[in-house]
Amino acid sequence: MASRTIVVGDIHGCYDELEDMLAAVAFSAEDRLISVGDLITKGPKNREVLERFMSEPRFSAVIGNHDLALRRRWNGEKFKLKDSQKPTHKELKKDKEHYVTYLNSLPFTIDLGTHLVVHAGLRPGVALHSQTTDDLTELRSLGPDRTARDGLPWYESYDGEKIVLFGHWPASEPRRGKRAIGLDTGCVYGNQLTAYIIETGEFKSVPARRTYDPS
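Structure (tokenized):
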């Protein structure tokens, strides 16, 4: 069986749905799984998700804005957590040294040759090495507020060499641009977890078992 690269959307502590996804794609010893980030916060099983990624060499991830927030806090920065991040901080803080080592290892991008994985987005026309941390982890639109949902989506203007696979901005179906695919379909909000198989161009989705974050 040929090896596959399976890129999965924001997990947010939804460990059971991650396992459902692995079953749905018939994940094999030859495959690899890559997360677009936000492994943790908001969902119920953050510890289980982290342990799964830390123990499985076939799993990798870029860092998401929620992962980064806890990483910064656990590294000693005076960083104010959002209300949605505090329960996970409380859940994991006694083992923070164990988990921060892993979070510190996560890159902002993973280059897959034809595709590039990033959590939030890329500014069109800006070289990869000049993209800011805030853009890579929080970009949605191209107006003055990168986090705004009502501006021009960055992926509608992006026309780079590589197809970008991203998360961060949940929608009921994968977001599509000319050269970008958004994989956050709001599992933690009760919708579904979505993955994209690079070799076949196929999407796979599994339903959320319940709504974990009603916001």
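DSSP finds seven helices and ten strands in the chain. Residues 116 and 153 are 18 Å apart (CA to CA).
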